[in-house]
Amino acid sequence: MAVDAYPATVKVNKPRRRGLLDQIGASILFILRLILPLVFLGSVFLLADLNSWQSVYFLDPFFEEELAPFRPGEWLKAGHLIFPLTYFVIHLTNRRYGPNLCVGLVSVFWLATAGSIVWDQYVSDLIYVDITQINTRTVLAFAMGVIVSQAMAIWVYEVTRGHPWWRAPLMASLWASGTFCLIFFVGAFYGSDLVWVNRMITYFALMVGTAIIMLVPYFLLKFLIRPVKGTGYVPD
User: What is the per-residue pLDDT across 54-83, written as a single tens digit (0 to 9) for each?
Assistant: First the structure.
C-alpha cells in the first residue's frame, strides 16, 4: 500500500497573546472581586478585636472537676471565638474564585492593616494606640500565626476540594487551626510562667468545634456561592 510521502499537516491554533487592554481588564476584574471578601474578612477581624476584652464563662460548666485546669473562663474572650470565622471567609472565597484571589485577599488585608497602624501612629490623632505598651513578642507571634495559618487554609482547601463537599472546608480549618495554635502559643508564651499548653489545647479544641459548626452555613451557602466560570472547578 502506498504511503503518502507528504502527510497532511495539522494546524495548531496558538493561544492569542493578551494585549494591554486585556491585562488591564483582568486586573480591574481581580480588584472588583476582592472588594466583597475583603469587606467580610475585615469585618470579622474588627468584630473580634472589638470583643477582645469581653470575657466568656459559659463554657466552664462543660469542664468537669478533673478538667478544671483546662477551663477557659479565666482567659477566653469573645474575640477568641470570633477569630476562627476568618477561615470561613477564606474558604468561601477560595471556593468561588480559587487560591490566587485568596492569596491576593490575604495580602491586601495585611498591607491595609499595616498601613492603618502606621497612619494611626504617625499621621492620625483620632484613635491613638501607644505601641510601646504592646507586648512585641505576643503581637509578632499572633501576626505570624495568622498569616501562616491563612496560607495553610488556602493550600489545604485547594488540594482537598471536591467530593465530599465537607472535606475541603473541614480539613482546611483543622490544619489552619493547628498551625495558628502552635505558632502563636509557642511563639508568645514558651519559656514563660504561664500554663500555656493547657490554653493551647483548649483553644484548639474550641477552634475544631467552630470548624464543625461552620459546616452548616457552608453547606447552605455553597449552592449560592459557586465557582465562577473559567476557574475550571466543578461545583460539589
Answer: 888 888 887 777 777 778 888 888 999 999
